[in-house]
């Protein structure tokens, strides 16, 4: 498993403006953005005991969660993802899904997953059967991403976090979501080293590393 370093800070709007200006001068915008940002819609999975949610709330050093995600309302490119955390190190595995396959998972039609060519799809199927994992809630937000080649660095600014509450039909563009937090999340990820130029650009003297979870925030209504 390839692990990347991850740190996260909850910041305010003034911090956002400052860091955006700094990063714009030294890093590069993600080429997939539209006007420097994109809209992310994810569907998170959990079991009846809220295992993923409780692992996050209780601060377990080793945890994982599954989600399905697409960007900018484009359902022609959808990915199943598994995020794993070991302390401050993270790993993300991904497998493509068609819109029809994603909808079938939402609808509980999952037998086809057992014969998928992608191990991650088969793993999710297995855990849906053995652990009771199922679609739980939609999480929407806006992201401003920056990249820096040395160290394979990715810095993101996330805000406008919204919850689908108990709605799981995340392919429906008319699914109602509501704002759940005015938090702005700064996240920095890198491989072997974090270049000083990025460390300085993202530095805030009075901000401590945090553990804000968009998924946990979106579960406030159940």
Describe the structure in brief.
The chain has 222 residues and is an alpha+beta fold. The chain is built from 6 helices and 10 strands, in the order E-H-E-E-H-E-E-E-H-H-E-E-E-E-H-H. This is VTC domain-containing protein.
Write the layout of secondary structure elements.
Blueprint (H helix, E strand, L loop, with lengths): L3 E8 L1 H14 L1 E2 L8 E9 L4 H7 L4 E10 L2 E13 L2 E9 L1 H8 L12 H12 L3 E15 L4 E11 L14 E4 L2 E7 L5 H6 L12 H5 L4
Antiparallel strand pairs: 1-6, 1-10, 2-7, 3-4, 3-7, 4-5, 5-6, 7-8, 8-9, 8-10
The total of helices stands at 6
CATH topology: mRNA Triphosphatase Cet1, Chain A
Strand residue percentage: 35-45%
Radius of gyration: 17 Å
Task: Characterize the quaternary organization of these chains.
Answer: single chain
Looking at the overall shape, the CATH architecture is Alpha-Beta Barrel
What would the average pLDDT be, to the nearest integer? 91
- Poorly predicted parts: none
Helical percentage? 10-25%
Read across the widest sheet, the strand sequence of neighbours is: 1-6-5-4-3-7-8-10
CATH superfamily: VTC, catalytic tunnel domain
């Amino acid at each position: 498993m390839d692990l990347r370093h991850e740190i996260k800070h909850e910041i305010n709007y003034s911090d956002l403006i400052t860091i955006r200006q700094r990063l714009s001068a030294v890093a590069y915008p993600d080429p997939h953005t539209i006007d420097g940002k994109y809209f992310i819609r994810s569907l998170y999975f959990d079991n009846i005991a809220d295992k993923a949610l409780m692992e996050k709330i209780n601060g377990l050093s080793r945890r994982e969660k599954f989600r399905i995600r697409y960007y900018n309302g484009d359902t022609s490119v959808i990915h199943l993802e598994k995020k794993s955390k070991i302390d401050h190190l993270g790993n993300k595995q991904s497998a493509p899904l068609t819109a029809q396959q994603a909808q079938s998972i939402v609808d509980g039609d999952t037998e086809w997953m057992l014969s998928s060519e992608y191990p991650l799809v088969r793993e999710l199927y297995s855990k849906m059967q053995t652990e009771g994992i199922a679609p739980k809630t939609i999480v929407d937000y806006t992201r401003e991403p920056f990249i820096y080649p040395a160290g394979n660095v990715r810095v993101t600014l996330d805000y406008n976090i919204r919850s689908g509450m108990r709605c799981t039909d995340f392919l429906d563009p008319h699914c109602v979501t509501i704002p759940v937090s005015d938090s702005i999340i700064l996240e920095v990820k890198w491989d072997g080293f974090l270049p000083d130029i990025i460390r300085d650009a993202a530095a805030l003297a009075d901000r401590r590393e945090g553990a804000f979870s968009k998924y946990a925030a979106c579960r406030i209504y159940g």
